[in-house]
Design goal:
It is built from eight helices and five strands, in the order ααβαβαβααααββ. Helix 5 crosses helix 6 and helix 6 packs across helix 7. The N terminus is likely disordered. Bound molecules: zinc ion.
Amino acid sequence: MEAAGQGRQAGGTPRAALAELLAGNRRFVSGQPVHGHDVTAAAAASGDQQPYAVVLGCIDSRVPLEAIFDQTFGAICVIRTGGHVLDRAVRGSIEYVVSQLGVPLVLVLGHERCGAVGAAVDALRSGERPGGSLAHLVDEIAPAITEAGLDDPAAHPLAIRRHVRRTVHALRADDLLAGPVAAGRVAVVGGLYDLSTGEVALLDPT
Ligand SMILES: [Zn+2]
């Protein structure tokens, strides 16, 4: 049995953090989560946290990040926005986790059939830009769709992957993250969640 939580510590290596996250996903996929049935106040009561990773994912209700990585309280920091779009609050939150909590890994997790990316594809194809702050999501996702090719029938799935990679690259170049990334103390990686199987696959495994 895999020791959930083994090696979890601030200041650990990016590689160890990624291995632990993916091990948690394998437990989830196999139907044998360690923490899946421990979502209780008692389990939360330690009051301490030693997160070893921060996961930026989508708001999609089918992709609850702590569950799909089989993580307990205090283990990972989670940020979710529509289509994992960045803004200053998201960047500042990740910068805080990395610089103040010593977390060595940032995982950007996209997912198949992402509605936010789909909405952006629809907006670009129709030429009807939504109002309000929803326009921000569309604007941030649009470059990935343009790269994928708006007229490509597979624009939606292709843009999902490109948007993950663009988000990864943007974070690697972030003011406060670029230095630790260049020094190898922090890794920013991208992944894709399969809604059918529950599996997380790295987009560019090293
Ligand atoms: Zn989504």
